[in-house]
Design brief:
- Helix content is about 90%, strand content about 0%.
- It is mostly helical and about 190 residues long.
């Protein structure tokens, strides 16, 4: 029976000792954290850091918005003028229709690739493809002007450029909406 009394006394003493150790550890942790831990930022410092982060994000997105808009609308507005000069019998309307229609598969492909590979990767690939297609279209435009050859290749590269621009144009709206907090989304998209 003495064993039962001593074991119950030891069992009662163990939780008390464990509580004392936890109290000592937690008080020492508070002391260490108060002296060695990271400093908490004040509300104004947190606001300033958030504002600077949003400014950096805006500064990186504004050139992308400009480039996408410039390439997309530039292609739409310049292509009919170019085709009117070098395509006989009002064939420029068919060329513009084909190039403008190629934007629809670009939207679909951009949405699919964004879900599959991510928005940033798809936007970057769209920009790169649009750049390459613009270079090819520029070289082929000079060939069409000088030698009268390469009209279909030019039209194909213009379609490829329109697909890539449409994909990037779709994704920049989605990316901008997701990158900013809800309170300023509409304001930023109106920029």
């Amino acid at each position: 029976n003495g064993d039962d009394g001593s074991s119950s006394a030891q069992a009662a003493a163990q939780p008390a000792a464990a509580d004392d150790r936890q109290t000592e550890e937690s008080s020492s942790c508070h002391v260490v954290a108060a002296h060695c831990g990271p400093r908490r930022l004040s509300f104004t410092e947190q606001l300033r850091h958030a504002f600077l982060r949003q400014c950096r994000l805006t500064a990186s997105l504004l050139p992308l918005w400009f480039l996408v808009s410039f390439a997309d609308y530039g292609l739409v507005y310049v292509l009919p003028t170019f085709l009117h000069k070098f395509v006989p019998d009002h064939g420029e309307f068919l060329g513009v229709f084909v190039v403008a229609g190629s934007g629809i598969p670009g939207y679909c492909l951009g949405g699919f690739c964004a879900d599959r590979f991510g928005r940033k990767v798809t936007m970057t690939a769209s920009f790169a493809l649009s750049f390459v297609a613009a270079l090819v279209a520029g070289v082929l435009a000079s060939v069409v002007v000088e030698q009268g050859l390469g009209y279909m290749q030019f039209l194909l590269s213009a379609c490829l450029m329109m697909m890539a621009c449409s994909s990037a144009f779709l994704l920049i709206f989605v990316y901008t909406a997701e990158a900013y907090p809800t309170l300023i989304k509409n304001f930023v998209q109106d920029l």
